[in-house]
Amino acid sequence: MLTNKCIRPLFWSSASRYISVVREDDGLLNLGDLVVPAWSQDMNHVVALRGRANRVVTQNGHELTKQDGKLLLQTLKRYNQESLN
Predict the structure, then answer these.
(1) How far apart are CA 71 and CA 75, in angstroms?
(2) Residue 69, exposed/middle/buried by CB under 10 A (0-12, 13-18, 19+)?
(3) 23: helix, coil or strand?
């Protein structure tokens, strides 16, 4: 039996920061993400997040790599430093 207690709407926190890692084609046979188009990876297309998501562009494919971990760590460190200033 499904009750109202099981259904919870998704709320976006106004205090949160959002980062969109977008895969784009670099034009040199690196076709970017062949599964999800670049425009669809940008969270600024979500109405509730429009203008609040920072966009970071990379030329990798769809899969996650070690470079993605490094990119996310660098990005988080940079945003953390900005918030402290």
Answers:
(1) 6
(2) exposed
(3) strand
